[in-house]
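Bumping with the actual sequence this time:
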Amino acid sequence: MARLALVYGLRLFPADDLAEVREATVVLRNSQPARITMHLLEGSLEDIRKQFDQSVAAFFEFYPEI
C-alpha cells in the first residue's frame, strides 16, 4: 500500500460572516499545484459534527482500493 497524506483544515466561523468559500491549493514535489475542494457545513455544533462524520466516511468510500 502506498504511503498517503491526508490534507485538511478546520475552522468555525459565524455562518453569517462568510461571504464565499474558495478552493485551496498545495504544491507537489514536482512543483505542480494540486487543488483541494473546500466544503462548507452549517448548523449547530451537533449538526456540523454529524455532517462532518458522514462526509469523512463518504470520502473514504471513493477510494475502496486503499
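The C-alpha cells above came from a reply further down the thread. The radius of gyration is 15 Å.
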